[in-house]
Amino acid sequence: MNGTSSTPPSIPREILSLKDLEAKCLETMAPMVRDYLYDGAEEGHTIRENLEVWDRWLVIPRMMRDTSTVNITPLTQQFNQSWSIPLGIAPSAMQQLAHPSGEKATAAAAKSMNIPFGLSTFSNYTIEEVKDAGGDSVVGLQMYLLEGRRDLNIELVRRAEAAGYKAIVLTVDSPVPGNRPGLIKSNFVMPKHMRFRNFSEDFGGPLDQAQDTQSNQPSVAGNPEIATESSQETAVKSRGNQLIVDPSINWERDMKWLREVTSLEIWVKGILHPLDAEEAIACGASGIMVSNHGGRQLDTCVSALDVLPAIVKQVNGRVPVHIDGGIRRGGDIFKALALGADFVWIGRPVWWGLEVAGEEGVKWVIQTLKREFEVVMKLMGCRNVGEIRREMVVTKSGLLSMGGSGGF
Ligand SMILES: Cc1cc2nc3c(=O)[nH]c(=O)nc-3n(C[C@H](O)[C@H](O)[C@H](O)COP(=O)(O)O)c2cc1C
Ligand SMILES: CC(C)CC(=O)C(=O)O
């Protein structure tokens, strides 16, 4: 981790893209943090797919359209606010792992760049501290529903309401933690000097490993099937001070419950099937986040981009549709919008910025994506986001099946 000295660190001049920044970050990032950040479910097929899918879509530019000035702001408001680009920072837990100022630095960067930020329930700074740091940019509190502890969920909602958040972002893709062998191998535990500060008791998080003192085998709470018999016992005993995500979450009981508990917007994060988008809308969702959780939950599951068009079709404009997963370049933002997304979010790149230069590093990530997106818009002949069209992107097989000429 860099950035602990009194002068704010800056991004070296030779770093030109998020890919360069990632390489720089990996020079200093502690192995256990790297393992947590990069961890994917099982063999990592979905993590790879999330990156590769963007290159399978090619763009067909239009020429001579006077793009001397372009407007990259979103067409419509999101969370009742206007933003500088259709890009936000997705919730990710424990950001102090990457920088001492953690979520406060990320929120401050979001504020200075006028983009939205979602705070994870499992943050290292509180709902209120992060709101103070990020002001109007801090729009959403991400929530996992906790097994047997709806009292804590209600408390979080009330605090988000009081602090001025606009939305609860309900993550629905994690009834249990995914199979993450990398985390088990690296014995991941949040370092002792960090805390889940949204909770007054000193809870362990859903990924913490309970150490079995007899067999010395690690077990992962919430994943008893991969624990040995004796370590399962330890995991169960440790549930007294462990927060477990509720594996029984369902539309009928929980989404309706949440809808009754608060008048904040409720966004549903982790949708991959059009019929689940339909369920979410039927339960009163204000927006849909198409996401596979950065490939961290279910291996070989589809990428968000591949299912986006079907979900956009199903939703048919009733609520906004956002997307995350593998967005690393301005051109990726363009493709997501061309395929019908209203807005995109990034996860891991924020950690690269935090690690290398704290708040300045996160700002650099956003500035770089803004600059790239603007250049892509100009080269594509689009003067504003409304001019981005579905027919401007095509897959190679789509192009060939049109005989190379169809559709023009
Ligand atoms: C380190 C890390 C922690 C995350 N923590 C959460 C979380 O607490 N809640 C949640 O809903 N999603 C979480 N996510 C998923 C992100 O919100 C987002 O869906 C994903 O990172 C997007 O993919 P990308 O990292 O390829 O941009 C996390 C992702 C990462 C990388
Ligand atoms: C504390 C974790 C459950 C956060 C998370 O969602 C993740 O690591 O993907």
Automatic annotation (TrEMBL):
One Pfam family linked to the record: FMN_dh
Question: Any idea which GO molecular function terms this record carries?
Answer: FMN binding; oxidoreductase activity, acting on CH-OH group of donors
* Name listed for the protein in its UniProt record: FMN hydroxy acid dehydrogenase domain-containing protein
Which residues does glyoxylate bind? 36, 144, 180, 293, 296
Gene3D superfamilies associated with the record: Aldolase class I
User: Which keywords fit this entry according to its UniProt record?
Assistant: Flavoprotein, FMN, Oxidoreductase
Q: Which residues form the FMN hydroxy acid dehydrogenase domain?
A: 10-398
Q: Which organism is it from?
A: Arthrobotrys musiformis
Q: Which parts of the sequence bind FMN?
A: 91-93, 120, 142, 171, 269, 291, 324-328, 347-348
Q: Which family does it belong to?
A: Belongs to the FMN-dependent alpha-hydroxy acid dehydrogenase family.
Name the residues annotated as catalytic in the UniProt entry.
293 (proton acceptor)
**CDD domains, per database record:** alpha_hydroxyacid_oxid_FMN
InterPro entries annotated for this entry? Aldolase_TIM, Alpha-hydoxy_acid_DH_FMN, FMN-dep_DH, FMN_HAD, FMN_hydac_DH_AS
